[in-house]
Amino acid sequence: MICSTIIPTIGRDTLMQSVQSALAQDVPAGEYEIIVVNDSGQPLELAAWLAERGVRVIDANRCRLNFVCNLGAAVAKGKYLKFLHDDDYLLPGGLRALVESAERTGATWVVGGSQVLDDGGGVLFTIDRPGLSGNWFATSVVGEVVHMSDCLISRQAFMEVGGFDPQVKISEDRDLECRLSLQGDVASTNHVVACVRVSGSAGSAYDFSNIVIYSRLVRERAFDAPGAFARIIDSVRSSAYLRGRTVRGYLYSGVLNLLARKVWLAGSRFTCGLRLANWHVVQPAFWRGVFHQQAKH
Predict the structure, then answer these.
(1) Phi then psi dihedrals of residue 148, to 5 deg
(2) Could you tell me if 109 and 182 are in contact, meaning their C-beta atoms sit under 8 angstroms apart?
(3) Strands, E, within 155-270: which ranges?
(4) Span 188-217, mean pLDDT?
(5) What is the DSSP letter of 234?
(6) Mean pLDDT within 39-49
(7) Of 32, 166, 238, 296, which is most buried with the most CB atoms under 10 A?
(8) At what angle do helices 240-259 and 263-277 cross, to 10 degrees?
(9) Closest to 136 (Cα-Cα) out of 109, 115, 98
(10) Confidence grade of residue 201 (pLDDT, cut at 50, 70, 90)
C-alpha cells in the first residue's frame, strides 16, 4: 500500500470536508487508506463516508493530538503517512503530487504548497514551496515550520524517529520536522496540496498559552541531539542568512542557559555559535540573519 491518510478528529463540523477531500484523491484503489482517529470522547455522527471502502475509524478518548496521530500511524499500512487535521482539507491532485515527489527523490519527507484560510474558509494567502530540497535541519531548528497537512512522511522514518512526542504539547510539527531533518532530507512539489486554517475552528485542539516554552524546548533538544552540529554546518553551507539565524539561536540559547546557571551548557552553545560564525561575519547576509531581517527586494 502506497499511502495512509490519518485524520485525527475532535468531532468538528469540518471533519466531513476533510474526509471527502481525502476520498477524492486520484490514488489507485487498494493502494490508499484513510484512518480517522476519533478523539472526541463520543461517537461520530452518522455519515455516508463511514461506509466508504478504505476508511477505518479508531476510537480514542481525549488522548490529545500527538497520541492519536501516533495511534493512527501504528495501525497504518501505507509506505507513506499523510496527516490531515480535521479542519483542513486536501486539494485535487495534492496527494498524488506528494507521493510522486517522494518516490522520485527518496526523501524522508516531502512538502507542498498550501492555501491558508480564515475560520470562515476564505483564502488569506497562498504559500508556495518550489525547489525546497536537501538538508533542512537548521531551518527547522531556528523556528521555520511546515504545517503537517502540507507534508507527506516516510512511515519508516516516522517510526525510526519515534513519531510525535507526547511531551511536546505545542510546536509538535516543528519538533517532528527537526528530528526528521536530522535523519534525512526533504523534497518538495510545486503543487498546492492542501487548504489549512490559520487558527482552527471553534473547539481547537491547541492551547497556545505555553508556545514560547515549548518552542524553546524543541530548539534545545535539537541542539543537544547527537550529530546536530555537523548536520547544521552542512545545512547552512550555501546560505549566509540561515547561518546568521542559526548563530542567533545558539547565542540566545547560551544566554538562557547562563541565566539558568547551566554554565557548561551555556559555554557549549556560545562555542558552537562562534565556530559557526567564523569568517562569515564579513557577509552582510549573515548579519541580516543574526538580526532576523529579510532581504529587501
Answers:
(1) -60, -25
(2) no
(3) 186-197
(4) 78
(5) H
(6) 90
(7) 32
(8) 160
(9) 109
(10) very low
Statement: residue 207 has pLDDT above 80 = no
Angle between helices 211-224 and 172-183 (to 10 degrees): 10
Residue position matching grid coordinates 478523539: 39
E-assigned strand segments in 156-231: 186-197
pLDDT tens, position by position, 81-99: 999 999 999 999 999 999 9
What whole-number distance in Å separates Cα of residue 214 and Cα of residue 5? 27
DSSP 77-145: --SEEEE--TT-EEPTTHHHHHHHHHHHH--SEEEEEEEEE-TTS-EEEEE--TT--B--HHHHHTT--
- Cα-only R_g, the chain: 20
Give domain 3-203's CATH number out of 3.90.550.10, 2.60.120.260, 2.102.10.10, 1.20.1640.10: 3.90.550.10
Domain residue limits, the chain: 3-203, 211-290
70: number of Cβ within 10 Å: 20
| Residue 125: exposure state from Cβ atoms within 10 A (0-12, 13-18, ≥19) | exposed
Instruction: For residue 257, give the DSSP letter.
Output: H
**How far does CA 160 lie from the centroid of its chain?**
16
- Going by the DSSP 8-state scheme, the letter that residue 49 receives in this structure is G
Q: How far is CA 200 from the centre of its chain?
A: 16
Confidence of residue 287 (pLDDT cuts 50, 70, 90): very high
Region 18-35 average pLDDT: 93
- The model's pTM is 0.92
31: nearest Cα among 67, 78, 66: 78
Q: How far apart are CA 27 and CA 95, in angstroms?
A: 8
